[in-house]
C-alpha cells in the first residue's frame, strides 16, 4: 500500500512541476527550462505505468499464451504504449471542445473502452479456438501488433490532462513534447513486463523440451488459458458497464 502511495505522490509532484513549466512557457516563452525538465516525463511515464491499468495483465497474458519471440513481443508492448498515449493526444487536439460530452468522466473515453474490450474478447476467442485445432498452422501475421493496438485504445488520463492544460494555455506543442516523453516511460515499463513474461515462458518451454507431447499439451493449455483470461476481462468490463 505504501509503495502505491509513493508512486501516486511522485506522479503528482511531476505533474505539478510540468504544469508550472507549461505556465512559464505560455507566459514568458521559457522553452529552455522546459526542455531541460522534459526528460522527467520518462520517469513520470514509467511510474504511471506501474499503477493499476495500462493493460499490463493483458500484455503478459497474451505473450504467455503466444509463441512470439523477444523482438515481436517488444513490438506488442511498444504498439500498446504508443496507442495508449496517442489516443489522448488525438482526443485533446481533435475533440477538445467536445471532451466534456465524449468522456463519461475525467480521463475516460467509454466508447473507446468498449471497443478495446470487445476486440480483446474476440482475440481471446481466437486464441481458444486456435489452441483446440490441429497445430499444422502458423500465427496470423501481425496478430501481436493488433493486440497491442486494441489494448492501447483506452486513452492515458494523465497525458490527456497535460494536453488539455497545454492547449488551454495556448502551447499545445509543449503538451505533445510531454506526451512523447511520457510514451517513452510507459514503453519502458511495458517492455520490461514483456521481456520478463517471454523469458519465463521460454524457460518453462525449455524445461519441457524433452517431452514433446507434454510440451504440446502445455502450450495448448497456456494459449487456451490466456484466451479465456482475455475473454473474461472483456466480459467483466461489459458487465460492469
| Quaternary status | single chain
How many individual domains? 2
Q: Write down how many β-strands occur, each being a DSSP E stretch of 2 or more residues.
A: 0
Fraction of residues in helix: over 70%
The number of helical segments is 11
Order of helices and strands: HHHHHHHHHHH
- Low-confidence region ranges: 99-107
Percentage of β-strand residues: under 5%
Q: Gap between N and C termini, in Å?
A: 27 Å
Averaged pLDDT:
76
* Rg, Cα atoms, Å: 20 Å
Which outline best applies? elongated
Structural class: mainly alpha
Sketch the major β-sheet.
none
Question: What does this molecule look like?
Answer:
This is Nickel/cobalt efflux system. Efflux system for nickel and cobalt. This protein has helices at residues 2-28, 31-37, 40-50, 56-65, 70-95, 99-102, 110-132, 143-151, 157-168, 172-207, 212-240. It is mostly helical. The longest helix is centred in the last third of the chain and has 36 residues, at 172-207. The protein has two domains: 1-101 and 138-197, no CATH class; 209-240. Helix content is 80%, strand content 0%. It is built from eleven helices and no strands.
Amino acid at each position: 500500500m505504501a509503495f502505491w502511495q509513493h508512486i501516486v505522490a511522485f506522479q503528482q509532484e511531476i505533474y505539478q512541476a510540468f504544469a508550472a513549466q507549461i505556465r512559464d512557457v505560455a507566459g514568458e516563452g521559457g522553452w529552455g527550462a522546459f526542455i531541460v525538465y522534459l526528460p522527467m516525463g520518462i520517469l513520470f511515464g514509467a511510474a504511471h505505468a506501474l499503477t493499476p491499468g495500462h493493460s499490463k495483465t493483458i500484455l503478459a497474458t497474451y505473450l504467455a499464451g503466444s509463441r512470439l519471440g523477444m523482438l515481436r513481443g517488444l513490438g506488442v508492448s511498444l504498439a500498446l504504449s504508443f496507442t495508449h498515449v496517442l489516443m489522448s493526444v488525438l482526443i485533446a487536439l481533435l475533440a477538445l471542445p467536445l471532451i466534456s460530452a465524449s468522456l463519461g468522466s475525467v480521463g475516460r473515453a467509454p466508447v473507446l473502452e468498449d471497443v478495446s474490450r470487445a476486440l480483446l474478447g474476440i482475440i481471446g476467442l481466437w486464441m481458444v479456438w486456435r489452441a483446440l485445432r490441429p497445430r499444422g498452422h502458423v500465427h496470423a501475421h501481425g496478430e501481436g501488433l493488433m493486440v497491442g493496438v486494441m489494448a492501447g485504445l483506452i486513452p492515458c488520463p494523465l497525458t490527456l490532462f497535460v494536453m488539455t492544460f497545454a492547449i488551454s494555455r495556448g502551447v499545445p506543442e509543449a503538451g505533445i513534447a510531454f506526451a512523447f516523453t511520457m510514451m517513452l516511460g510507459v514503453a519502458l515499463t511495458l517492455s520490461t513486463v514483456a521481456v520478463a513474461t517471454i523469458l519465463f515462458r521460454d524457460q518453462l518451454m525449455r524445461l519441457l523440451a524433452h517431452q514433446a507431447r507434454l510440451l504440446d499439451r502445455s502450450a495448448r493449455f497456456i494459449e487456451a488459458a490466456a484466451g479465456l483470461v482475455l475473454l473474461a476481462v472483456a466480459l467483466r468490463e461489459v458487465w460492469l458497464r
